């Protein structure tokens, strides 16, 4: 399975999402959460289809759902022996993100660190290194196809140290199709920093570089990132790029009952 990486379950889900990509981008209510199938409009997508996919695949994504709807979503999933974990949503428009990221990026990288060229092949040693780095730092990785931007506009930022070892990564892409009100919204995430390189501000820098590229290169209208309510360091990192909490929105991952949280 070229370009797939992770556990057997993760790779199987990546394959399902990749095979269904054209369908996802042409189906009202569907969106592309990256690792599996998903929706940004459950009513348009259809609850019978949602339950069928969760039970078949074991995981399903909900993106930019109204916070007021989360209780009802949880109830419908529980009635079908499924559950869901939710994340908070942080959002920035072009103006706010441009000002904030310029301030971060203009300070430059710490001495001894540099940006790597972006990966543009789905399956080679450089891509495997990026995916393994994410997995080692608790992030369920995307397929190489998605990280390389081979199925749509995307950016994968990587920072390495003096020994050419990865120190930090981040990724962004466009999950929403032409039928969605969020069509020009980019998603940013998969941010990871090696424990041996923490305390240098690399997370803030790699995130800012990723956010900046979404607006300068891909002409996004907005960008959003997800963070657990208890993850204060990630909140501060995201806020440094100009994003602010949107209390009206949530994102989640539905799982078959008994499955552990899919990613941190």
From TrEMBL:
Family annotation (SUPFAM superfamilies): Acyl-CoA N-acyltransferases (Nat)
GO molecular function: acyltransferase activity, transferring groups other than amino-acyl groups
UniProt keywords, alphabetically: Transferase
Domain N-acetyltransferase: 113-264
InterPro entries: Acyl_CoA_acyltransferase, GNAT_dom
Any single Pfam family the record assigns to this protein: Acetyltransf_1
PROSITE patterns hit by this protein: GNAT
Name of the protein in its database record: Acetyltransferase (GNAT) family protein
